[in-house]
């Protein structure tokens, strides 16, 4: 493999894949705003902010690759110099990761009945990753060559390690909490299984991408393969958020087909005993029939509607 293949060739491939994922982001954002117009304003603001950060990041990496492969074409000496947009894009990738992981941290907080230990353990990794990103950018912005940038390799590895650790821990907490939310009802438990699989899948790609970036910077030292993975990381975070939000109606639709509702916060059950008619109906030998009505109050944490299910047993 030539020198340009695993450096600026990897650069170009990373930008192309990132641009493709950005197209998916735009489509998912359009789908979200058209399908969920009644969502709270802060969720809409989050989606808008994530899209804006993602858009700026895509513009920055496009500027970077254009500068190296077009503007500086035929000037080998300039290929060793740092372009400002290559450094700044790290900050916007960090912004995107911070917003998406904070959203998922809030989900852990709600599902865990406001557990401080669970929330802080996740939040410490999320904030730690962003702080390291800010430190990285603050140091790298004053550098002028890739040779100087190698001094920040341990910092870059730490950012990717914390990103992967945060994604894995969030997935573990969500799956564990959902597992503990089982009700004993077959249909409810089936839906919880779907939510567990969904939680794993939404965090899987970001974790793999962060781990691959970490492995690349360790194993293929002196190449830009790790940068190609890092270019795509923010796009995967954005799409995982949008996939989580956009899947709500389809999952609730599946649950309605099974005469049940979907809960992303847990299930509350209340039982009321009612008498048949205006008084208990007496049968021979003083046997009375009592109907227990169990209501599952199930709601999407971002929806104002409450769906009820009544299961009757004699």
Using brief descriptors, characterize the structure shown.
5 strands, elongated, disordered C terminus, 314 residues, single chain, three-stranded antiparallel sheet, two-stranded antiparallel sheet, mainly alpha
How confident is the prediction overall: mean pLDDT? 77
- Supply the helix-strand structural class: mainly alpha
Estimate the strand proportion: 5-15%
Task: Tell me the Rg in angstroms.
Answer: 25 Å
The global form is elongated
Distance between the termini: 74 Å
Helix and strand element order:
HHHHHHHHHEEEEE
* Helical segment count: 9
- What's the arrangement of strands in the largest beta sheet? 1-4-5
Oligomer: single chain
**Major beta-sheet overview:** 3 strands, antiparallel
Number of strands: 5
Determine the fraction of residues in helical runs and give it as a percent range: 55-70%
Low-confidence stretches: 255-299, 304-314
Q: Can you offer a commentary on this structure?
A:
Helix 2 runs antiparallel to helix 8 (225-246) and helix 4 (116-140) packs antiparallel against helix 6. The chain is mostly helical and 314 residues long. The strands form 2 sheets. It has a 3-stranded antiparallel beta sheet, with no helix packed on it. The chain has a two-stranded antiparallel sheet with strand order 2-3. Helix content is 67%, strand content 9%. A hairpin with an 8-residue loop joins strand 4 (290-298) and strand 5. The chain starts with 7 loop residues before the first helix and ends with a strand. It has helices at residues 8-35, 41-71, 84-111, 116-140, 146-149, 153-180, 186-219, 225-246, 248-257, and strands spanning 268-275, 282-283, 287-288, 290-298, 307-313. The longest helix is centred in the middle third of the chain and has 34 residues, at 186-219. Residues 255-299 and 304-314 have low confidence and may be disordered.
């Amino acid at each position: 493999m030539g020198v340009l293949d695993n450096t600026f060739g990897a650069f170009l491939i990373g930008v192309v894949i990132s641009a493709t994922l950005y197209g998916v982001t735009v489509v998912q954002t359009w789908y979200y705003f058209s399908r969920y117009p009644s969502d709270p304003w802060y969720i809409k603001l989050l989606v808008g902010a994530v899209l804006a950060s993602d858009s700026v990041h895509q513009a920055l990496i496009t500027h970077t690759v254009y500068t190296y492969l077009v503007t500086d074409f035929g000037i080998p000496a300039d290929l060793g110099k740092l372009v400002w947009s290559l450094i700044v894009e790290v900050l916007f990738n960090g912004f995107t990761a911070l917003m998406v992981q904070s959203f998922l941290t809030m989900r852990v907080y709600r599902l865990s009945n406001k557990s401080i230990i669970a929330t802080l353990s996740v939040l410490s990794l999320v904030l730690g990753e962003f702080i390291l990103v800010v430190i990285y950018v603050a140091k790298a912005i004053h550098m002028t060559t890739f040779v100087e940038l190698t001094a920040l390799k341990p910092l870059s590895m730490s950012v990717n390690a914390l990103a992967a650790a945060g994604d894995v821990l969030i997935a573990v907490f969500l799956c564990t909490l959902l597992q503990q939310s089982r009700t004993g009802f077959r249909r409810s438990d089936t839906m919880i299984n779907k939510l567990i699989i969904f939680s794993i899948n939404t965090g899987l790609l970001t974790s793999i991408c962060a781990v691959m970036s970490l492995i690349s910077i360790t194993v293929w030292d002196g190449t830009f393969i790790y940068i190609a993975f890092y270019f795509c990381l923010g796009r995967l975070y954005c799409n995982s958020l949008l996939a989580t939000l956009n899947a709500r109606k389809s999952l609730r639709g599946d649950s309605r087909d099974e005469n049940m509702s979907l809960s992303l916060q847990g299930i509350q059950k209340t039982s009321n005993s009612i008498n048949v008619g205006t008084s208990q109906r007496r049968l021979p030998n003083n046997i009375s029939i009592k109907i227990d009505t169990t209501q599952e109050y199930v709601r999407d944490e971002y929806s104002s509607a409450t769906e009820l299910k009544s299961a009757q047993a004699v």
